Amino acid sequence: MHPAQRRFGSSLGIDRTTMVAMLDALEGKGLVSRHPHAQDRRRNVVELTDAGHETLRLATEANDEAEREFLASLTPKAAEQLRSSLQKLVLPSDD
Predict the structure, then answer these.
(1) Would you call 44 helix, strand, or coil by DSSP?
(2) What is the pLDDT of residues 50-68, one digit of tens each?
(3) Most CB atoms within 10 A, among 7, 34, 73, 89?
(4) pTM of this prediction?
(5) Which residues form the HTH marR-type domain (predicted)?
């Protein structure tokens, strides 16, 4: 598995086997394509297909709408404070 895939899997808490299975499933649904890396044939390049880009666009729109509804009762400042606090919980710190 490509080191970037490994890092991506690690950041999501997904082991190598699960990551490969997820990519297999996404490829089977036509959402990603894999092909050998031009300089290192041991590695694969994973790219979104047109269907993958469309699915990502729709998912992003749905996520944005759900977030707007969830945060609707908060002031913009309170919503930003909540986002910031949640990011601190899930993203690695720079410390």
Answers:
(1) strand
(2) 999 999 999 999 999 999 9
(3) 34
(4) 0.72
(5) 1-91
